[in-house]
Design a protein that fits this description.
3-stranded mixed sheet, alpha/beta, 9 helices, about 300 residues, disordered N terminus
């Protein structure tokens, strides 16, 4: 099916998702034998169970289907690895087309070519690509509003990648805010900008302020964004990785009752899934598992 190319972008992290790209573990993990070969090299915390991953993912998709009318699937490609389930990192959706990322994690470099092939087949316009020495991963990108993009500068997204991103978006972005990311657990750990902030509405975000740079945190507050502060214990269970499927309607990992309570006190509808195999072991929550193609503002 050709996807309507006019429905690409939205320049929002909280508008209602009308169209989304996913990759099923049947096509990313492929088999238990494939998992057994790759998981240690990819720095997963422990070995995912293939059958349990499928069960968890199917339930996660059932939640998405309650809101999102159009779901599109990246196909199996045996030249790329388990991490391809985390589709956000490989692409950035803009109103002018998709920007293909160049992964900072070396084992994921081949994902861009697979995405390029898929997008071309589906008739989705490609605005450009990050290439050469430049690296950008989608988990480091947040739309603050229609004309403001926030980019995390860390181990996965470098200065050259940010320079190329600025060039590609110059005609429709007024400002790119570059946020220096902390060393945290080092270059081999999965740490993105979205590891410490998840927008829930235009004026509400879940954050882990212990890791937020002060100027960026102050910038959020100055914009009138209320910050819901997660606890240290729930940061470890990925409470800061929350997918807004519509304004004040979110999907998050279960096992984070304090964060859920804070959200519900703000009038947020919370849907939960179990993600031990598909999220916790690979350090990729619901935002990582999804590439919203079009959000309706």
């Amino acid at each position: 099916m050709i996807i309507n190319h006019t429905n690409c972008g939205g320049h929002s992290e909280v508008g209602k998702i009308e169209s989304i790209i996913l990759k099923h573990p049947k096509d990313a993990f492929i088999s238990q034998e494939n998992i057994d070969i790759q998981w240690k090299k990819l720095n997963y915390s422990s070995r995912p169970d293939y059958n349990k991953a499928i069960e968890e993912y199917d339930y996660f998709v059932s939640l998405l289907k309650t809101v999102i009318p159009n779901i599109h699937w990246l196909p199996r490609n045996e030249s790329i690895g388990l991490d391809s389930i985390y589709v956000r990192d490989s692409m950035i959706a803009t109103n002018a087309g998709i920007i293909l990322c160049n992964m900072g994690k070396g084992e994921r470099k081949s994902e861009s070519a697979a995405c390029r092939k898929y997008l071309s087949e589906k008739g989705i316009p490609i605005l450009g690509e990050i290439n050469g020495d430049g690296t950008v991963e989608g988990g480091d990108i947040i739309w603050l509003d229609n004309n403001t993009l926030v980019v995390g500068r860390g181990y996965r997204t470098n200065n050259e990648g940010i320079r190329q991103l600025k060039e590609l978006t110059a005609e429709f972005i007024d400002e790119i805010i570059v946020v220096p990311l902390p060393h945290w657990r080092g270059p081999d750990d999965v740490f993105h900008l979205m590891s410490m902030i998840s927008p829930v509405d235009d004026d509400l975000a879940v954050v882990y302020s212990r890791l937020l740079p002060v100027p960026f945190r102050e910038r959020l507050i100055d914009r009138g964004i209320k910050l819901l502060e997660i606890s240290d214990s729930e940061y470890e269970t990925m409470a800061c990785n929350i997918l807004a499927v519509a304004p004040r309607k979110v999907i998050m990992l279960n096992g984070n009752p304090r964060t859920r309570q804070m959200l519900e006190a703000e009038g947020v509808e919370v849907l939960e899934y179990t993600g031990e195999e598909i999220s916790q072991k690979g350090a990729g929550g619901p935002t990582c598992l999804t590439r919203p193609l079009f959000r309706k503002n």
